[in-house]
């Protein structure tokens, strides 16, 4: 397996090569092909990026990362969106032992390059490394062999669910929808699994993986294996926060609807009473009902909301400095 994937990007007089760690799906930074400078996503990825530069300088070829919808374009407002990280650190090039960090201009990150489950997968890898350091490689391997319930397992299973559900949601794209994955929000480690923007409006999607479980839904509660879970409350909070953040940027009121999508395998989903403001689907049956919802946004409004939603600074304004101005400013 190749250690890295790359993606070429040229726009507005800039020429860059973005680098993704194939093992985790995490973007580690980019090389400015004009100046030769390396710009890691954050200081922790500087050495990984330098490793790529060292291999590339030695003539190692890496596969090109492809995406059907993701060519960066100028956005509404004063900050151009690129696939670059929020807090960039420019470093001098290749030698791994000579990486020197200096401040670089703020460039907003284009979240449309995020993969489904990207944040959860990176967290699973970090938990795996931490467990190996704590109990050793053999005990870690043995734990995975017997499917021990560890933090790494929880994050890994969550990433698997996000990836499969994300692929199902991508089927909406040819029908005028925009889909974002692993959208970071707030000041902590929280993220929204998927954000859908289409003619029927904006939807925040929470992916859940309960293989073989029986899920029971009423208006005020969801039970998994007959145990109550806070999924409705959490989903409503997620949608309300998304609506508030998007409205602050686009210049017109944006409503968001929460969606719960379950990957159940041989399990069952029984909806005795609909929760009303939360849509609940099985992963294999989410596409058709979502596509069939009545339109409430014009194509222009869909584009405007998407341009705001794809910016990291919309969801984490403090991380990106001052929030870009919207039409009302």
TrEMBL record:
Residues 157-269 form the NERD domain. It comes from the Bacteria. InterPro entries: NERD. The lineage of its organism: Bacteria, Bacillati, Actinomycetota, Actinomycetes, Micrococcales. Pfam families: NERD. This is NERD domain-containing protein.
């Amino acid at each position: 397996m190749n250690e890295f994937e790359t993606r070429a990007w040229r726009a507005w007089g800039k020429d860059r090569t973005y680098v993704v760690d194939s093992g985790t799906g995490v973007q580690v930074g980019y090389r400015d092909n004009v100046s030769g400078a390396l710009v890691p996503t954050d200081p922790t990825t500087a050495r990984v990026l330098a490793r790529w530069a060292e291999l590339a300088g030695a003539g190692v070829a890496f596969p090109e990362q492809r995406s059907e919808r993701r060519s960066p374009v100028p956005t509404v407002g004063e900050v151009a969106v690129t696939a670059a990280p929020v807090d960039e650190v420019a470093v001098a090039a290749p030698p791994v032992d000579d990486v020197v960090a200096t401040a670089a201009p703020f460039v907003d990150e284009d979240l449309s390059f995020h993969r489904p489950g990207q944040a959860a997968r990176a967290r699973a890898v970090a938990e795996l490394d931490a467990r190996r350091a704590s109990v050793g490689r053999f005990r870690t391997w043995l734990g995975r062999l017997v499917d021990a319930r560890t933090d790494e397992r929880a994050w890994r299973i969550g990433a698997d669910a996000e990836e499969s559900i994300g692929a199902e949601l991508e089927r909406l794209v040819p029908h005028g929808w925009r889909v974002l994955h692993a959208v970071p929000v707030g000041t902590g480690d929280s993220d929204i699994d998927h954000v859908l923007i289409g003619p029927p409006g904006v939807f925040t999607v929470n992916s859940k993986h309960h293989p073989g479980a029986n899920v029971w839904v009423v208006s005020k509660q969801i039970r998994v294996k007959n145990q109550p879970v806070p999924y409705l409350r959490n989903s409503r909070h997620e949608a309300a926060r998304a609506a508030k953040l998007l409205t602050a940027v686009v210049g017109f009121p944006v409503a968001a609807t929460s969606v719960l999508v379950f990957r159940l395998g041989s399990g069952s989903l029984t909806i005795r009473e609909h929760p009303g403001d939360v849509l609940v689907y099985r992963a294999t049956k989410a596409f058709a009902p979502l596509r069939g919802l009545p339109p409430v946004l014009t194509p222009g409004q869909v584009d405007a909301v998407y341009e705001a939603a794809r910016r990291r600074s919309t969801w984490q304004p403090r991380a990106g400095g001052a929030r870009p101005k919207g039409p009302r400013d």
